Amino acid sequence: MDRGTPLIDIGVNLMHRSFHADREQVVERAAAVGITPLIITGTSVRSSREAAQYAARYPGQLYATAGVHPHDAKSCSTDTIQQLRQLAAQPQVVSIGECGLDYNRDFSPRDVQRRWFGEQIQLAGELHMPLFLHERDAHEDFVAMLREHQGLVDKAVVHCFTGTAQELHTYVEMGLYIGITGWICDERRGKHLRELVRDIPLDRLMIETDAPFLTPRNLPVKPKEGRNEPMYLAHIAATIAECTGRSMMEIEIATTETAKRFFGL
After folding, report:
1. Could you report the average pLDDT of every consecutive run of 10 residues in the chain (265 residues)?
2. Which of 35, 43, 140, 170 is within CB 3.0–4.6 Å of 30 for a Cys-Cys bond?
3. 139-148 and 110-127 are packed helices; what angle lies between their axes, rounded to 10 degrees?
4. Distances (CA, A) of 245 to 4, 164, 201
5. Side-chain half-sphere CA neighbours of 176 within 13 A
6. Nearest Cα to Cα of residue 253 among 34, 7, 9
């Protein structure tokens, strides 16, 4: 299907093991339905390097982020930031992250998470690059750290937003961008998000699959083994259109233009 407006998936975990057997086909299937380019999420130095190397094979079709997820903060070392800095110098790397705070799992000690989140905020500021953010059950500390570094970073997106109305309004007031996933397609867990999405300014809204995770529950045909992939992104756009009373075309054009502007594509 050739769509008039290509859609940009701002968050794909394309280096995840579930894509090992058919990674190229996943990219091709997405492009065939107008989902292009894709931005591959880096979550550690190693995965960021793999993402950058893979994206380099598809100029203009794949991009990557470079960062350390709070789960992996415990494995950071003195040369982590320098390694991210080197990765970020490559033209296909368009953002610092995924970084932030996660107090839900606490896979890394909270003080360690905060230290390396701060280091990555500073790196994004130094390189004049946008931030790709993760926050879970850590809203107060997350906001406090971003405010502490206010003015340092030009642009930041809260990826996979699933929070409360108060959290959303705080982020919007701070000038942050919001990434919406297939969570909004879940009539149980995503119910509040279906109402909240109306409060996101259209020029700050971006869409993402977070594949292979968060497969939209209301897909007409369920994928084999439940694996999500970028070709389902338009389904998220359609759900947002339905929730906001806007046309699908309006959501497609706005989210694509916002993503291009945000990542400098």
Report:
1. 80 97 97 97 98 98 98 97 98 98 96 98 98 98 96 96 97 98 91 96 98 93 91 96 96 97 97
2. 35
3. 40
4. 20, 21, 14
5. 25
6. 7
- Structure pTM? 0.96
Q: Are 125 and 149 in contact (CB under 8 A)?
A: yes
How far is 62 from 247, CA to CA, in rounded Å?
27
Nearest in space to 33 (alpha carbons), one of 58, 6, 10: 6
Beta bridge mates, 99 = 133
DSSP conformational letter for 92: T
φ, ψ for residue 164 (rounded to 5)? -85, 170
> Structure tokens of 113?
């998470």
Strand residue runs (E) in 13-125: 35-40, 62-66, 93-102
Count of C-beta atoms within a 10 Å radius of residue 37: 27
Query: Which tokens is 11 given?
Result: 């968050």
Which pLDDT belongs to residue 1? 46
Among candidates 234, 95, 83, which has minimal Cα distance to 242?
234
